């Protein structure tokens, strides 16, 4: 099978809801990261075979094929095709997988995997709530699905509470993890660790969600999202605006365009399980990916596990036997934000550049996704 190489990976800095990116149309955010890849790598824009864009809330400004609209707003010629995909929070990680699979199959040579989400301009849940408010339809889950699983809706908030209970994770432990996320992100920002991955948007170049003055006392004072629960706004990911993109190339394209790969795609896995608890599938997916690759978790130098809610990476760490010192070394979505459809490629950008900074060779990325799905990507740093 042919190899797939990561040439470069970029992201915008995370914008808080109503913050620095609120006036940017999501299509223009997406176009900005596409342009950055072209400029940084020096590729001929017309040589790009496809753009695969992840986006969760495909309605309003993110409707009518946001991926194609990103191409039309960018410096890529209109001869470059695009497709928009939704695998919930893992949408742009799946973009990376589809792009790598196209390269590995030999059907394409240069593919951009991207993602975008403006959670300010297209609020989370809009595709579900807007039709219901207009009296259109009954929602995404018919009675057949509700009866099968014994619920009337599938919510990540219920899943997070279920995970905390299943893995015996206390509110104190969740808040301590959240505090560490902010501290890591603050230290990484101050040390310039994100400089090589962030694309400046206007004057915006720093992640807005980091709380430099975060404390356990402040986190402990936040109300839980449900009565008698343990999940709060402080130990859950932040609503965020952002975009991300990864350029993936074949060996032939590397030679033809004089490119220098940053990393090689080593393993691609996606699994699915219980859609009610929903959020613990990265555990099984990681075990599957490691088994397929013939590796152990001890072989992996750094891991990016999306901090949708603090129970997710904490349970993952315990169950797969990971090293806390290798987990989300520059902070995670609790501090940096979780721009849904952009988060997959965003984490890949952070992982690629963190491996270079820390001198690691192998990196693993995974994230929980709506419906009880999880993607895992293992990469090998080359330069």
From TrEMBL:
Boundaries of every Thiolase C-terminal domain copy: 259-381
Superkingdom assignment: Bacteria
Domain Thiolase N-terminal: 5-251
Keyword annotations: Acyltransferase, Transferase
Family: Belongs to the thiolase-like superfamily. Thiolase family.
Name of the protein described by the UniProt record: Acetyl-CoA C-acetyltransferase
Gene3D superfamilies from the UniProt entry: 3.40.47.10
Keyword check for Protein transport: no
Gene source species: Sphingomonas anseongensis
């Amino acid at each position: 099978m042919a190899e797939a190489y990561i040439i470069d990976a970029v992201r915008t800095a995370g914008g808080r809801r109503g913050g620095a990116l609120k006036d940017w149309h999501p299509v223009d955010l997406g176009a900005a990261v596409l342009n950055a890849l072209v400029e940084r790598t020096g590729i001929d824009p017309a040589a790009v075979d496809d753009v695969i864009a992840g986006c969760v809330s495909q309605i309003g400004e993110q409707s009518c094929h946001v991926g194609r609209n990103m191409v039309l707003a960018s410096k890529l010629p209109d001869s470059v095709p695009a497709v928009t995909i939704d695998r919930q929070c893992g949408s742009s990680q799946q973009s990376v997988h589809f792009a790598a699979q196209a390269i590995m199959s030999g059907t394409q040579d240069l593919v951009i995997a991207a993602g975008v989400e403006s959670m300010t301009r297209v609020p989370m849940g809009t595709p579900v709530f807007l039709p219901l408010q207009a009296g259109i339809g009954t929602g995404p889950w018919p009675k057949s699905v509700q009866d099968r699983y014994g619920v009337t809706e599938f919510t990540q908030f219920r899943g997070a509470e279920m995970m905390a209970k299943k893995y015996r994770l206390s509110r104190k432990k969740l808040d301590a993890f959240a505090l560490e996320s902010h501290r890591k992100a603050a230290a990484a920002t101050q040390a310039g660790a994100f400089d090589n991955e962030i694309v400046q948007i206007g004057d915006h170049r720093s992640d807005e969600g980091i709380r430099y003055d975060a404390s356990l006392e402040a986190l402990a004072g936040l109300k839980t999202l449900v009565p008698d629960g343990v999940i709060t706004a402080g130990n859950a990911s932040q609503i965020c605006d952002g975009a991300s993109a990864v350029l993936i190339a074949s060996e032939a394209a590397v030679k033809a365009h004089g490119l220098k790969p940053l990393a090689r795609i080593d393993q691609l896995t996606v699994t699915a399980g219980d859609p009610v608890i929903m959020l613990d599938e990265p555990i099984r997916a990681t075990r599957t990916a490691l088994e397929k690759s013939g590796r152990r978790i001890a072989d992996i130098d750094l891991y990016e596990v999306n901090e949708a809610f603090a129970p997710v990476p904490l349970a993952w760490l315990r169950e797969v036997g990971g090293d806390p010192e290798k987990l989300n070394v520059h902070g995670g979505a609790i501090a940096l934000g979780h721009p849904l459809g952009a988060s997959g490629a965003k984490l890949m950008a952070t992982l690629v550049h963190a491996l270079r900074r820390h001198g690691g060779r192998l990196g693993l990325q995974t994230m929980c996704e709506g419906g009880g799905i999880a993607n895992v990507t293992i990469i090998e740093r080359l330069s």
